[in-house]
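Sat 14:20. Reprocessing the chain from the morning session after the first attempt stalled halfway. Input below, unchanged.
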Amino acid sequence: AYILMAKLESLPGGDRSQALDSLNRAIEALKDKPVDLSVAYIMRAQLREGKDEQIEDLRNAVKADSTNIDAWQALIAMQLHLERYQEALSDAKDLLAKDESNQMALVAAVEALVRLQKRKDAIELLDARIEKNPSVAMYYRIRAATYRAESYAEGVTDEERDAANKKAMEDLNKAIELDPRDAEALVMRGMLYYQEKEVEKANRDITDSLLIRPDSVSGVLMRSMVAAQEGRFADAIADMEMLVRADPNQLEWIRQLASYYQLDKRPRLAIQLLDQLLEAAPDNAAALRSRGDAKLSVNMHQDAIDDYEAAIKLMEANRDKADPEEFKEEYSGLLNNLSWVMSTSPKDELRDGKRALELALKACEATDYKAPHILSTLAAAYAETGDFENARKWASKAVELGKEQEHDQTEQLEKELESYEEDKPWREKQEIEENEKPLVVPSDSIDT
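Finished this time. C-alpha cells:
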C-alpha cells in the first residue's frame, strides 16, 4: 500500500513530501522482503534532492537485491554523472562479474577508464571481449571510440595520433561490416573521414546513418559540418537551427550556428544570436570572440575591440582550468584579431601601434611563428609603428608560408606586402554585404 501511495503522490499534481513519507514507511516495512525493498530504495532515490542521498539509496537497493539490474545501472549512471569515475568503474566491474553480457556496464567501464586516463586498460578490456566473441559489432565500435580518445590525448605525438586514428578506422570498418545498420559506427567513421578531408565519404556515411536513425543528434551535427565544409551554408544552418531549437541550452551549438551565419554573410543575424547567448552566459569568452569577429565584419570596430578585450581578460583569468592546446589556439586567435583591428582600423582614434605590436608578438610566440595570418598581423603592427623594414620582413615571411601551406588568403597577404614596400600602413574597413536570400526552414523531426 505504501508503494502504491508513493506512486500516486509522485504523479503530476501529487505531493512529493507525502510520496517520500510513504516510501520511508515502505522501507521500514519491507526489511524482510529484499526484492520489494530494492524497488522502494530506487523509487526514493528518484525523489531525493541530495546527490549523496540518491547514491546512498541506490547503493542500498543493490545491497538489498544484488540481482536488480536496474538498481546497478542507475547507480553506475549516477556515479558517471557525478564524475566519480573510480566508483563507477568499480560498480561496473561488479555488475559485469554478475552479468557478463550487460552492455551498459561495459560501456560505463570503458568510459570510466578513459576518464581516468587509463585508455590502455580500456582497450585491453575490449581486446578480451573481442577475442572471446569476435562477431559482436558493438565491441569494435567502442574500441574505436577509445582509440579516438587516445588520438586527442594531451601530449600525443603526430605519429601516435595517426596510429590511433588508423586503428579506429579499422575497427569502425569491421563494426560496419558486421552490422551495416550500426548508425553510431557510421557517424563515427564519417567524423574520421571528415577529419581526413575525405568529404565525399563522410557525406555518404552521415547520410546512411540518418536513413537508419533520422533523429540522431550526432548525425545531424555531422551533416551540418560536412555541408559547411562543402560551402553549403544554408543546409548547415538549417541543420544547426534544428538542433538549437531542440535544445536551446546547448551554448556550443548556438555559437556554431552563429559561425555559420557569419560564413553565409549574415553577420547581423550572428550578432543577434550571440547577444542572446551572452545574456544567458556573459562569461563565455568564445562567444565574445565570435561576436567581436561579427562586429568587425560590419565595421563596428570599437564594439569589436570591447568584445576582444573582455574575452582576453576572461581567458587569462581561467587559464589554469583550460586545456593547454585549446587555450593556446583560442588565445592566439584573440590576440591576433585585437592586434589586427588596432593596427589596421581606418578610425584613427582606435589604432594603437604599440599595443598592437605587443599583442601580435604574443600571438606569434603562441603559434611558433608558423601561422601566415598571424605573421601578417605582426607585419601590420610594425607598419603602424612606422617600422616598415620589419613590416616587409614579416609580410614576406607570411607570403612565403602562405604559399607553402596553400593558404586561402595568400593573394591578400601579397597585397599587404606591396603596401609596405611603398611604406604605406595597411587599412581595412570591412563592410560585408548582408546575404538577403531566405533561409531554408529547418525540419521539426529531431528529438533530443
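The first helix runs from residue 2 to 10.
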